[in-house]
Structures are given as structure tokens and as C-alpha cells.
Amino acid sequence: MLKTLLKIQLASLKNQLTGGNRRKQKPSGGRMLGMIVLLAYAFGTFGFLFYTNFSTLAGPFHAAGVDWLYFSMAAIMCFGLMFIGSVFSAKAQLYEARDNDLLLSLPIRPRDILLSRLLLLWIITLFFGLLVAVPVLLAWQTAVGFAGAQLAIYLLLFAVLMPLLSLALSAFLGWLIHLATARVGKKSLVTVVLSLVFLGAYMYAVMQMNTFVQQLAQSPDGAARTLGAVAPVYAMGVAVAEARFDLLLLLAAGILALFAVMILLLARTFIKTATDRRSGAKKKYVERRTAALSPRRALLQREWRRFLASPGYILNCGLGSIFLLIAAVVLLIEQKKIAPLLQDETLGLLLPWLFILGLCFTAGMSMVTAASVSLEGKSLWVVRSLPLDTRDILRAKLRLHMQVALPPVLLCVLSAALILRPALPLLLCLLLIPLAFTVFTGLLGLAENLRHPTLDWINETQAVKSGVSILFTMLIAWGLMVLPVLAAVFLSSFVPMETIGLCFAALLALGCLLLYRWLMRGGAAVFEKL
Amino acid sequence: MLRIEHLTKTYGDKKAVDDLTLHIAPGEIYGFIGHNGAGKTTTIKSCAGILPFDAGEIFVDGKSVKAEPLACKSVLAYLPDNPDLYEFLSGIQYLNFIADVFGVGQDERAARIRRLADSFELTGDLAQPVSAYSHGMKQKLAMISGFLHEPKLIIMDEPFVGLDPKASHLLKEMMREHCDRGGAIFFSTHVLEVAEKLCDKVAIIKEGRLITCGTMDEVKGDASLEDVFLELEDDHA
Fold first, then answer.
1. Rounded to 10 degrees, what is the CA torsion of A40, A46, A52, A58?
2. Shortest CB distance from B48 goes to which of A295, A378, A385?
3. B89 vs A305: CB contact, 8 Å cut-off?
4. To the nearest whole angstrom, how far is the Cα of A284 from the nearest Cα of chain B?
5. What percentage of chain A has pLDDT greater than the value 90?
6. Least trusted range by pLDDT, from A34-48, A461-475, B164-178, B190-204
7. Predicted structure pTM score
8. pLDDT per residue over A82-111, tens digit each?
9. Mean pLDDT (chain A, rounded)
10. Listed residue (A362, A363, A372, A378) closest to A313, CA to CA
11. ipTM given for this complex
């Protein structure tokens, strides 16, 4: 039975990754290849980031005789990314799947349902883990080199045991979050706040890593003691650095025991947790006079309500806006610290462009439209059967994106303009590039979601987290940012940077125009055939 | 009110509906009967403008579903067999959304929602999110939304499945009243007793092709609809 359930879970994952739906049962070879290329691109981008960081640590740590510290820090980074990447998927996949009732009604042991869902989570966890583990491995191999059984222990620890540990803890925490949110009215708000707290904690830990490295340079023993105090982390570092199989076995025993306890606990409570429908006190209906809206405004209101009701949607497709709002405030608070940097001849010239780049990069994380078609799911019949112009349905999705993504971008631009006090051409670049980029991302997201909709999702997370359109939109949008960077590298000696910037804004505007035209014609036709 | 002319719809090599012609006049409750997979839902979805079809034409209130889909949809209500409504809205928010789309004014909608929700005994649950509704409650909400804008034509796919006896009885009354006011109803069902008592006309479909249609007397004569249905099914096997 477990084998059958595993097959279903894997088929579901494949379906999400290849954008398959009811009408397109078999993904084409080209689509599969495109997916592989894009995954490789994602892996390469993040991998490069971690490789760069860890390759600067490997040599000095080895020279200082603290090899274990290198692997301990890698373990913390790896575990953090795996945990953050899977904790909210765990909640949705395990307890909020639409087929829970169906599966529980069949003669299947709850433990098997749980294990099959955990396998899918393990794959997601492993993906996040490998983003760190592979570059860490390459950085060490290049700078120092693995000796003896080090590599085998490293692989066993980072590719097998750590994902299990992360999975055990994220499933447990997912269970706790589900229990906590099942009893409150504002589930969406509580989940978003909890997620942001976790994310904030992770980012704080990442930032502390730099401080830790500085502390290490000044007082190696003190810093090592700090990290060494966390026994499992120390043990992981030592197990790899000294090729200690005894420590590996000890860690394996501990992690497997933890995993087994978690499985037993969750399996025992699975039926109750998965079927718990309580959501606080029943709201009493009081008849109120409601203002009548035009169909277009009603569609926009529908999109807003869908967005605000779904923490997964907010966190996966609106995170950039949350970051930008925070950034706008931080910029204003920290402007006295930033202002002196502008006096530096090189940095003063570079900073506005780095800011534009960073702003676009963050704005690219807001892609509300990229899941908006998929989220229609099985309710698609509602809008299809109503007297609504398909173009109005698509426009409402675009408007939501603009209303979620543009105000934070404008606030950030305003904050930056107050600090940078740029001349008119630079001000235009500062304003137009992020705005055009944000509009472009919204249009691209909608087009991509029309091309790769996932309507048969079992839980909403599949539509907003694992959808191909999300990945495509983010990678294409971020990939576009390479263009002005390349142009700056090769042309800035001949052409002013402001001209390059404005040309890029114009290019984005042209892209917006072409995408909008396609959406209103071809895109509308695609929507009508879904 | 609804004219289906030589409708053909294929999925790959399989003809789901094959050259189907049916006419539903104002005032008629028209039952649509067939075994599972006979092509009922495909026909119904095509009539509601949800599913594109390969050949033939469908006219709603004299307008072509292909050429004027919005005009057709503005005078009809479609209720599917499985009411997957917006779970992120409350019942009242869903009804207001439907009323907004059909341009039902403030006062009219308030009165209609009050009347319909009271009839279906759903008033107390209207503030609850649809995600908290049972299957039957979702079906009742879908019914209310269907009648809310007073459509000329109501197209329903298995409307009685999942409804409790009281709601089922109420729906039958409402269907009759709707048709007495000049509206028309086209619905599929497997409950032959209901079709026999409720419908003015009936059509039987098998493997996408129309086997027979007409008034209830023309189709069944002195026999029961169940006997006729089973006999016709065997004849066309």
C-alpha cells in the first residue's frame, strides 16, 4: 500500500514540475528539458552564492586547524535552509491535503499515508539541502581536499541524515502550527506572522555568521567554544573533519530515533489532526447593507480576498513586497549610516545602481499573478459560467499584482531618493526601472501561469509553491537583470550609465506592451480553454 | 429558450456527444437522462458556455453560445454536479460576488438573499466561510446563487444529489415556480422517479447519441420511466 501511495505522491510532484494538467497528460520532451535547464539554473545561482562564501572559509579554517568548524557552519546553514524551506509545506502537505478524508476512508494505515507524504517533503527538503551541501563540498575539495572516509561521512551526513533531522523537526513544528492555527479565527494572519518570525530568525542567523567569522579571526578559541557548545553541531563538524565513524553512528542513532518518535507521535494523532475542522466560534450572520460593485471591481475584490485568505499565497508570491516595506523603513532609519558611503568616489557612483539592482531583485520575488490562474483550481467553472469578459478576469489578476507590488516599490524608491538625492536622469532610472520591472514581472507571471497552470492541486501549496510558473517567472525576471549589468560592463566607457538604465527601462516597457497584448488575445483564449 | 442543434463534441478519438439536437421551450422542465459517461455533463457544460464544442450550435434565448457567450450567460444559471465554490469567501460574500457580476441592485439582492437563504435554512450560516460548509450546504449555496439573479434558463447537473429531503422538495417547488413564470430548466438526473414526476419533457442519451425525447407521455406511455429507460438502453446496446 505504501508503494502505491508513494507512486501517487511522485506522480503529483512530477505533474507540478512539468505543469501537466487534465488536458496535457504527458509533458513533452522539450518541456521536460526546459524544466531541467531551469532547475539547473536555480541550483547554479544559489550554489554559486554558497560556494563563494564557503570557499573563502575553507583554506583559512584548515590552516587554523579548525576543520570541524567549517563543517559545523555548513551544517547550520544547510539545516536552516532545509527547515525554512519545508516547515510550512509540511503543515499543508500533511494535514491540509484535500485527499486526506478519502485516504483515511480507505483501508490504509495512517502511518502509510504519513510516510508517503513525508517522502515528498523529504525530496523538497533534500533539494534545499543540496543547494548548500554541494557547494560546500566543492569549496572544500578545491581548497583543501577530502581525505580517507571524510567524503563518505560527509555525504551520509548531509544528504541522508540531515534531511531526516530537518524533516522530523519541520513535520513536528508543522503539527504544532496546525494545532495552533486550527483554533484561531485569523489563521492566515497568524501563519504569515509565524512564518515571518521564522524567516527573520534564519536571516538573523545568516547575518550573525559574518559577525561570528570576525569574532573567530579575533579570538578563535572563544568563537569555537561558542559553536562547540551546541553538541550535535559540534559532533557533525568533528565527524566529517576527523572521519569519525563512531560519531556518525551516534548521530545516526539520535536522528533516526528522533525521526521514529516523530512518526509514531504523528501517526497516532494523524486522524484527529487531519480531520480537525474547528476554527473558533461560529460567526453569527447579521444582515448588512452591502454596496453593489461593478463586475470589474467585484473581480478585483475576489482576487484580494483570495490573496489575503491564503498565507501560502502571501508568503510565496508576495514576500518581495513585505521585504520592500521593511527595507523602505530601514533605509529611512539608517540613512545617516548610508550617507557617508556616498562620499566615497567609487561607492558613491555604484551605490544607486546597486540599489536599483537590489530593488528589482526583491521586487522580482513578488509575483502574485504567477499562481493566480492555478488557484482557480476546481472552482474555475464559477467565472467560466458567469457573464464575464475573460480579459476582465485576467485584468483583475494583474491589478492585484500591481496593488500588492507597486506601492512598496514606490516607497523604497522614495526612501532611496531622499538619501541619494539624485540628479534628474538618475532619478528617472531609479523610478522607471523598478516600476517597469514590477509591471513586467506581473505580466510575465500571468502569461507563465496560463502556459503552465496547475488546476488539479490537492492542497494550495502545490499551486503557490511548486508550480512551474512561479519558478519560470522568477528565473526569467531575475535573468533579465543580467542585461543591464552586461551592458554596464561593456558599454559604460562609451555610454553614460543613465542612458543604459533608461534604455533598459524602455526595453522593459516594450516587453510589458507585448505581453499585455498577448494576454488580452492569446492569453484570454488559453484561459477559455482551461 | 434553449436550442441545441447537431451538437458534437469529441475528446481525442472519442465522440462524447454525437449530433445531438434538443429544443427546450419557455415554461418547460426538461430532464436529461443517461448512464454514467453518456455525454450528459459534456452537453450541459457546452450549453453553459464552459466547454467549447466541435460542431453544431447552441442558442440560449435566441442567441448563439459561440457568437455571443456573454449575452447567453447573462440570462442563464449553471449549477454543476459538484459545487466547488470559493472556499476563501463566506457564504454571503459569495452571494454578493454573484449579485455584483449580474448587476443585481442593493435592495433587490438583500430581499432575494433573505428569502432564498431562509427557504434553504442557510441564513444562520451565511457568515461562515464556505470551507466550513458541508457538501449539502455548498449545494444549497450554489442553488441560492443560481436563483439570485432570476435567470431565464437554469441548467443543472444532478441537482438532487446530496440535498436533504426537505431541500430536495423545496428545489422541486422552486423549479416548478420558475417555469410557471416563463423560465426554463434543463437538468440531468439519475433519479428516474423525480424525472417522471417533475419533468414536462425528457431526453434519453446513450454514448453521446439521442435515443429518444419528447413529453413524458410520448416517451414512457403507460410504462414507468425506469422500465422504458432500461428497455431503450438494452435495445441500443
1. -90
2. A385
3. yes
4. 6
5. 25
6. A34-48
7. 0.78
8. 877 776 677 777 777 767 777 777 777 777
9. 82
10. A372
11. 0.90
Q: Which residue type occupies B218?
A: E
Flag the least confident range among A5-19, A311-325, A414-428, B126-140: A5-19
Residue A362: predicted pLDDT: 87
The distance of A32 to chain B (nearest Cα, Å) reads 23
Residue A202 has pLDDT above 70, yes or no: no
Extents of the domains making up chain B: 2-75+151-235, 84-150
In this complex, do B86 and A279 lie within 8 Å of one another by their Cβ atoms? Answer: no
* Residue (of B50, B10, B4, B47) closest to B23 by Cα position: B4
| pLDDT at position A13 | 66
Residues from chain B contacting residue A282 (CB–CB below 8 Å): 128
Contact call for A292 and B73, based on CB within 8 A: no
CA distance B61 to chain A (A): 14
What are the structural domain ranges in chain A? 28-274, 295-528
All residues of chain A having their beta carbon less than 8 Å from the beta carbon of residue B97 are: 298, 301-302
Flag whether residue A389 sits within 8 Å of chain B, measured between CB atoms: yes
Q: How far apart are CA A200 and CA A100, in angstroms?
A: 32
Query: How far apart are alpha carbons A419 and A430 in whole angstroms?
Result: 12
Could you say which residues from 164 to 223 on chain B have a Cβ atom under 8 Å away from some Cβ of chain A?
A: none
**Burial call B209-218: b when 16+ CB within 10 Å, e when fewer:** ebbbbeebee
Mutant choice from B97, B134, B153 vs A, greatest count of A C-beta within 10 A:
B97
pLDDT of residue A27: 56
- What superfamily would CATH give domain B2-75+151-235? P-loop containing nucleotide triphosphate hydrolases (3.40.50.300)
Give strand pairing partners of B156. Answer: B79, B187
Q: Do B128 and A386 touch (CB under 8 A)?
A: no
Residues in chain A, overall count: 530
